[in-house]
Automatic annotation (TrEMBL):
InterPro entries: AB_hydrolase (IPR050471), AB_hydrolase_1 (IPR000073), AB_hydrolase_fold (IPR029058). Keywords: Hydrolase. This is Alpha/beta hydrolase. Residues 23-125 form the AB hydrolase-1 domain. The keyword Hydrolase applies. The keyword Translocase does not apply. GO terms for molecular function: hydrolase activity. It comes from Rhizobium setariae.
Length: 275
């Protein structure tokens, strides 16, 4: 395993994790996540080369001005990082925001993408979906109340609803108030909550690569219906419903690793047959 900072042409440094050997897979974290989120979700031992680029403002990567935070910008950064590693064609995937980045890359850079994995997508094609509103609310409280915003969010109508219907979502959102540099984090959360992958349903329907879409219930930020809809409109996509994270976190992780491992192994077998 290697972990190193890669400098982009604009001077921004991004932390890149590169582990394993075999066909390359660039797999991305969610909004506010990092390399650890991916490591906890990805199959082990892996039968591929897994690369994770910590997006601007995440993990060990540089922060950026708020106008530089966008799904399109993060996608461009991944291509730059792939170029620096000499990766011409790869599988792309991700969780939540990572799934939106992956979907954008599959559509806008088809010559680079061999297959697609979308785990718990938080976007379809439109920007600022209602399910991302809790992030926007958290961003406002981070700016206006700092750490004290945690209790305000927890007792708000959104917090009360999440506590009942999606406690794992609530735990993640409350965790933001315990981090450092809360104003910068608020910039990041607010910008991405209002963004989208910048693609159309027609473009999604025109995809012609192997695809896996994974979803589960008990999740308001990552609606089951979004995952199911994407699985239905991506031609030939494999659909997998797994144990909700809020119900059994260990079972969720095991299920996710199993479906991704099966997909990656099937892809590898098809590549061997084709070549």
């Amino acid at each position: 395993m290697s972990e190193a900072m890669t400098q982009l042409p604009d001077g921004t440094s991004l932390n890149v994790v590169d582990v394993g050997t075999g066909y390359p897979v660039i797999f991305q974290h969610g909004l506010g996540g990092d390399r650890h989120q991916v490591a906890d979700s990805f199959p082990e031992p892996i039968a591929c080369r897994r690369v994770t680029v910590e997006c601007r403002g995440h993990g060990l990567s540089d922060k950026a001005a708020v106008e530089r935070y966008s799904i399109a910008g993060f996608a461009d950064d991944i291509i730059a990082a792939a170029d620096s590693l000499g990766l011409q064609r790869f599988i792309v995937g991700g969780i939540s925001m990572g799934a939106a980045i992956a979907l954008r890359l599959a559509i806008t850079r088809p010559e680079r993408i061999a297959a697609l994995m979308l785990v718990r997508p938080a976007w379809l094609t439109e920007p600022a979906p209602d399910n991302m509103r809790p992030f926007a609310e958290a961003a406002t409280l981070l700016h206006t109340h700092g750490r004290e915003g945690r209790e305000i969010f927890a007792s708000s109508p959104t917090g009360i609803r999440l506590a009942t219907e999606a406690p794992d979502n609530l735990a993640s959102l409350l965790g933001f108030f315990e981090r450092d540099d809360l104003h910068a984090l608020g910039d990041l959360l607010g910008a991405i909550a209002l963004d989208g992958p910048g693609v159309t349903e027609e473009q999604v329907r025109a995809l012609s690569i192997p695809a896996l879409v994974v979803g589960h219930t008990h999740d308001l930020v990552h609606p089951w219906a979004y995952a199911r809809q994407l699985a239905g409109i991506i031609p030939g996509a494999r659909w997998a419903e797994i144990t909700p994270k809020a119900v059994d976190k260990a079972r969720y992780a095991a299920d996710l690793r199993a479906v991704m491992d099966a997909f990656l192994r099937k892809f590898a077998a098809s590549e061997e047959t084709r070549t």
